[in-house]
Write the structure tokens for this entry.
Amino acid sequence: MRGKRLALAMMLACAASVAPFSPLHAQAAPAETLKIDKARIDAALKAMIADERAVGTSALIWQDGREVYFGSAGMADREAKRPMRRDTIAQIYSMTKPVTGVALMQLWEQGKFRLDDPLSEYLPEYADMRVYAGKDAAGQPLYVPAERPITVRDILRHTAGFVYGAGPTPAHDAYVAADPLALTIPLSEASKRLAAVPLLYQPGTQWEYSIAVDVQAALVEKLSGQPFADYVREHIFLPLKMTETAWRQPDARLPRFAAMNVMKEGKLVQQDAAAARKLNFEDHALTPGGFGLASTLDDYQRFARMLLNRGELDGVRILKSSTVKLMATDQLDPAITKRAWLPGKGAVGFGFDFAVRKSPPQIPAENRGAVGEFFWDGAASTLFWVDPANRLTAVFFVQKMPYDGTLHRDFRAAVYGPDYKGPAGD
């Protein structure tokens, strides 16, 4: 049990048809024409291996409706001497979250809920939430009633107040004791366990990365009447021909899985192959909304291209264009000033399960990117983004824990050039 909890802690540390590639937002054209420099990206991937920050890396970029880059470096499995390839399967952890958000917003399009409905209207366990309010003179925890209900919008933008793992407060202790992400329980039980844990703050007042996307998955199950994995497979993966993306992979794909590498005492140590892959090969009861998918570059790129195409790919519509625009629009009121580590990702806000770039890079150390892009990453240092201004999508794979943002910085600099600023913000 301790091993499973440790593994989970590591995971968490971290309409009408429209013309393809039309920008999601009305914005200025890029300040400069972006041309992909294959040699520069190749060199960046190889440097990550050479300086021992990664064991294996790969990337796939589309621009203007065509593939403009694929490259890889290093090993998918160093012990087996198996190189990183295009068909390598990687654990994408929190890159699962945007998939869950798309699933829930499909149901929103069907009128199954309103964004500002109380969550308890659909999941009654969230009706009477308590909020941690510090400790009294005797050192005992204080709890107060929530001043307003958690809304569906809150769980889409991480403002519900939920805890996400161990931490310094009694609310964190209660979360650990409840173990809402135990792999042996279904989503309905996970939701009920979470609802018994006090909130960290009043709903809608802070941004704090959380278990909220797993609550989104429980809501998909409740509203659709289908098991979450079945719903996603039927309504997202099969229509997009994402044939190799799943929470539970068939045993025949085991030889293509990348091994996980963990930084210990300054060196990357490969995890035992069985332990690194068992999340996707055991018959667990839990199908998390926030992590658990394994995928290939090409499969996840199809998901990204659908988003760039405003909800459609190859004649198949997954979302309305207006829904994709809504998800990729900053949803954080300026009054929400406490935003945990989100500012560390640059001049960004947060939409529905995506970070959203609002301004050009402010300092040289900030990740390169264009205003209007939306993106997310994973605990094993994977990354993807959608850049409407440059009509571009990028997917980057690596299997390294803990999360290493320097890999993203260097990959983005190789894609855009180290001095790229792109279009001006609002």
Notes: Residues 1-23 have pLDDT under 50 and may be disordered. Residues 156 and 352 are 5 Å apart (CA to CA). The chain is about 30% helix and 15% strand. The chain has two domains: 2-31+52-105+227-416, 113-224.
